[in-house]
């Protein structure tokens, strides 16, 4: 890549073996920075409560046999990157770089045939320039030493970027970009400048490079883009005029991508700069319309976009902008008429169909959306439209129709997994659990595989086939490491439901060793062993959990329980329990079970203080909504404290009926409650 003086004479007099040595030296030099960087891993019914979580439709009185109804329409089945362009991508005409093609005559007539036949032992090497060996460009020197980009300097600059030495690396890249045949170096330098420098600095660099390389058309677009970004509207209009003079139909829409001024005054300045350019370019009309839309000047915006659409009536970006202008100006009738007109003119464009379809879905009109989707699916033959059609069909109970739409998607690799997932749902809702399981087992995409495999586990547990359920979980963590923790947790839960506490403990120990910093595994182990841990061990585990996720409500509640067990009057802990009990249902951290546990903590504290009315305030309503054994026992003590024997009898009977409470106790022991 490096150029040398007297290169023709060097080729004529330097023999192949010496050339091989020279290449070896250059390779060693190029690898030096990399070397520096390198030197500097069952019993029936025992799973009922778990199944109600895994399979929301599960009914323990319902038969889940092996002979469900069969569907006659079943179908069978899925080093450091270099930035080649700046962060934005304005569209520009591609022009060949005349300097990119090597000139063979410039390099002499010697051809290396791979042999040493012409090797002269005493060949004169005086013409090999010393710069190749001992005058390499220093990282702090911004002056290019060679006529072409210096490979060693570029490698040093790129490694510098990795090390965070942005300033030095940018200096090298910018300097090397001004050498011959350095378009790629310029684009890398500009990308770094845009990422790490101000728009003004990036504009100054791009402008200087463009003036040295005036025939490089893409640079005109870069300068125009950066001038707009830096607010230099005079420079921007100058470059836009150059572009339009070169190609009056040039697509300018990419130039303003993501850089529309936010300040109304700047928007007006830009509009004025664009107005000074008398041109019929449709992209220019669109830019003006977009600015006027932001300025809420809808009438002229509509005029400009209509002018652009006269030239390019099928341009989806132009159509979308007109829809936005009509929508923002509250011309809904005109907007829907325009959309329907364009759907007729361009029936294969899915985006046009989806405007009205999504509107109907947002309005809850799923029946109307279903009708529109039938037309859109037939006209566009687009898999995205087909998938949306199936989803709406599932929501309105058209399971057979949804399967008809989903089945062809099994042959589309990008949609195969999702098609299997929604086919499984359709069979599940139709009651055909065998086919549902078959399709759930074929789901492979990360978004749906956890839910699908969890359903499969539920089906096996419903038939007391624990071995297959566990095998499914093992396969899940083998195939999808991202869900390994979920697999371990559900596996441990199954073992606990079988009263295999030791096996569950051993499994979680293995999981914690494999994923030592995962708080969910640590918390599961803590819950399993907390009755066997000392207070010091509990404190150590809880502190670790809070260190990993200080705002997790479950970890905060564990901390509160431990503090109150050591000091029942810890006001800070009581305030924390109250805050957890008051989390609203629309809060992302809301968990009804955790909220109930916080209320039980408050109820038990009130009970210890003899404040029985407070216990009722905390727990009476929650128990009615979701009966819980611990909440019921605390309420029972409060009723006894208040002498309300009728409520004691009713609640005791309910506890015995729901939770078999006291069935193994004598009448005297039950009476103690």
UniProtKB/TrEMBL annotation:
SMART domains: TPR. Residues 62-102 are annotated as: Disordered. It comes from the Bacteria. This is Tetratricopeptide repeat protein. It comes from Moraxella caprae. The lineage of its organism: Bacteria, Pseudomonadati, Pseudomonadota, Gammaproteobacteria, Moraxellales.
């Amino acid at each position: 890549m490096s150029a040398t003086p007297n290169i023709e004479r060097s080729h004529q007099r330097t023999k192949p073996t010496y050339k091989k040595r020279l290449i070896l030296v250059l390779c060693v030099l190029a690898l030096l920075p990399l070397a520096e960087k390198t030197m500097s891993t069952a019993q029936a019914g025992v799973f009922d409560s778990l199944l109600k979580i895994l399979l929301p439709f599960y009914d323990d009185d319902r038969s889940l046999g092996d002979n469900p109804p069969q569907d006659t329409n079943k179908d069978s089945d899925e080093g450091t990157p270099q930035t080649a362009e700046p962060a934005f991508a304005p569209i520009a005409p591609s022009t060949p770089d005349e300097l990119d093609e090597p000139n063979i005559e410039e390099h002499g007539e010697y051809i290396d045939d791979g042999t040493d036949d012409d090797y002269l032992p005493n060949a004169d090497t005086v013409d090999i320039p010393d710069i190749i060996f001992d005058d390499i460009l220093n990282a702090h020197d911004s002056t290019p030493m060679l006529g072409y980009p210096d490979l060693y300097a570029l490698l040093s600059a790129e490694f510098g970027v990795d090390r965070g030495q942005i300033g030095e690396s940018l200096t090298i890249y910018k300097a090397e970009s001004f050498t011959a045949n350095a378009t790629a170096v310029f684009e890398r330098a500009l990308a770094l400048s845009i990422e790490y420098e101000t728009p003004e600095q990036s504009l100054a660099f791009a402008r200087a490079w463009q003036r040295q390389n005036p025939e490089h058309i893409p640079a005109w677009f870069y300068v125009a883009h950066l001038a707009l970004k830096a607010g230099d509207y005079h420079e921007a209009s100058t470059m836009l005029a150059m572009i339009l003079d070169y190609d009056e139909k040039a697509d300018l829409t990419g130039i303003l991508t993501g850089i529309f001024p936010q300040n109304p005054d700047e928007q007006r300045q830009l509009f004025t700069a664009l107005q000074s350019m008398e041109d019929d370019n449709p992209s220019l009309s669109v830019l003006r319309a977009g600015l006027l839309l932001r300025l809420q000047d809808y009438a002229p915006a509509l005029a400009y976009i209509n002018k652009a659409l006269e030239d390019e009536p099928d341009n989806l970006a132009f159509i979308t902008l007109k829809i936005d202008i009509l929508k923002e100006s509250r011309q809904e009738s005109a907007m829907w008429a325009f959309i329907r007109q364009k759907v007729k003119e361009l029936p294969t464009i899915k985006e046009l169909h989806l405007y009205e379809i999504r509107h109907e879905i947002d309005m809850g009109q799923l029946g109307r959306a279903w009708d529109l989707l039938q037309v859109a699916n037939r006209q566009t033959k687009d898999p995205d439209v087909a998938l949306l059609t199936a989803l709406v069909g599932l929501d309105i109970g058209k399971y057979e129709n949804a399967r008809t739409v989903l089945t062809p998607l099994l042959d589309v690799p990008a949609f195969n997994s999702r098609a299997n997932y929604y086919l499984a749902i359709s069979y599940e809702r139709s009651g055909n659990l065998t086919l549902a399981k078959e399709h759930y087992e074929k789901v492979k995409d990360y978004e749906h595989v956890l839910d699908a495999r969890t359903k499969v586990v539920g089906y096996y547990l419903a038939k007391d086939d624990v071995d297959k359920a566990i095998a499914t979980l093992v396969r899940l963590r083998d195939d999808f490491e991202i869900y390994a923790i979920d697999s371990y947790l559900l596996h441990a839960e199954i073992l606990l439901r079988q009263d295999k506490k030791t096996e569950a403990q051993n499994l979680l120990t293995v999981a914690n060793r494999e994923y030592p910093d995962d708080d969910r595994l640590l918390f599961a182990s803590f819950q399993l062993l907390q009755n066997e841990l000392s207070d010091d061990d509990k404190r150590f585990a809880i502190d670790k959990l809070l260190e990993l996720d200080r705002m997790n409500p479950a970890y905060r509640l564990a901390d509160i329980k431990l503090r109150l067990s050591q000091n029942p009057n810890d006001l800070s802990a009581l305030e924390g329990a109250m805050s957890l009990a008051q989390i609203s249902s629309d809060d992302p951290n809301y968990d009804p079970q955790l909220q109930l546990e916080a209320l039980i903590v408050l109820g038990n504290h009130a009970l210890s203080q003899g404040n029985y009315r407070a216990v009722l305030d905390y727990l009476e309503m929650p128990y009615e909504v979701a009966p819980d054994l611990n909440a019921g026992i605390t309420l029972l003590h409060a009723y006894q404290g208040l002498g309300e024997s009728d409520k004691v009898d009713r609640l005791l009977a309910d506890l015995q009926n729901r939770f078999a409470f006291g069935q193994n106790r004598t009448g005297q022991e039950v009476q103690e409650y």
